[in-house]
């Protein structure tokens, strides 16, 4: 059978820590499948180009059969030319003692020009996953600067939080992590996010019926997930990288593949007013993919007063972030 034509994938900040954990997995077929050739379009800023050359040497030295070509560039138009998947990683990570929102003034300015370059150059089936922090609002900035690209093509990454939350619940319940499903991260990828344990399930049973400890669920569980990024920075001296790259791969696979049964996954997508969330925010919701990149926000999940209050707090934070970057929106 003839080989499929290659699909172009852009990774920004490709010489960084996450880039280093991501590129080899993309090149080996874990993003788009084991029979899908890829062209890697790797964007860096000038000071990162030498390190990027080294990373490309290593990708070459893996002799991955699926890699048709690798393009390295500092030029946004080249980086996004004909691309179908843009993974926007490149930006400054926070240091110990910072919140992710503190990065908005440093990183926000990166995403308007990238949004415009995506609109001008990308393939018609472009989909964008924003990883660089604060990822929800950076995604909003990029999307608002690319009004030509449909709003359902833009995603910010809350999957790392979902994976973290599943890990914590599995450990507490003494079950394999695959037993934990339907874990929605509501709102912002920040310390206000709400990992929704009440709608999550363990082997099909609602989590609170398996873990009969509301104090832990409402307290330590939520805080651990909210502060996991900071805990990793504290321990490693650097922010999460391999787990972030893994979550980026999981996100793309979940967007491409129809979600089985009545399951859902966590992605921050454009709000159309679901659950009373203001329209246009890039908000973490439970999302069900329908295959071929189409998706819907899962509606009808119940929330008690505790959950409603948590969702209100994270919504307010995203509204405040949007006000902060109003000058960067189009
Ligand atoms: P890093 O500093 O190791 O790498 C970032 C790379 O981006 C560097 O090589 C840098 O040269 C490059 N870069 C900076 N500005 C750029 C620009 N304008 N265009 C292109 N490249 C640019 O950082 P990292 O650990 O790879 O993290 C990258 C980002 O991802 C950070 O903002 C971090 O906070 C975020 N992050 C998000 C999540 C999440 O769950 N959403 C998880 C982990 C990290
Ligand atoms: C994470 O959640 O690990 C990342 O967003 C990095 C950070 O700053 O916490």
How would you briefly describe this protein structure?
The chain contains 11 helices and 14 strands.
Topology (SSEs and partners):
Blueprint: E1 7-12, H1 17-27, E2 38-43, H2 49-61, E3 67-73, H3 76-79, E4 85-88, H4 104-121, E5 127-130, H5 135-144, E6 154-156, H6 159-173, E7 180-181, E8 184-186, E9 194-196, E10 201-202, E11 205-206, H7 207-210, H8 214-226, H9 228-236, H10 242-256, E12 265-270, E13 282-291, E14 294-297, H11 305-324
Parallel strand pairs: 1-2, 1-4, 2-3, 4-5, 5-6
Antiparallel strand pairs: 7-10, 8-9, 10-11, 12-13, 13-14
Helix pairs in contact: 1-10, 4-5, 6-8
The chain binds nicotinamide-adenine-dinucleotide (NAD) and (2S)-2-hydroxybutanedioic acid (LMR).
Specify the structural class: alpha/beta
Rounded mean pLDDT is 97
Question: Which ligands does the model contain, each kind named once?
Answer: nicotinamide-adenine-dinucleotide, (2S)-2-hydroxybutanedioic acid
Total beta strand runs:
14
The geometry reads as: globular
Distance between the termini: 46 Å
Strand fraction: 15-25%
DSSP helical segment count: 11
- H/E element string? EHEHEHEHEHEHEEEEEHHHHEEEH
* Residue share in helix: 40-55%
Largest sheet: 6 strands, parallel
Please state the CA-atom Rg, rounded to the nearest Å: 19 Å
- Low-pLDDT stretches are none
Strand ordering within the main sheet: 3-2-1-4-5-6
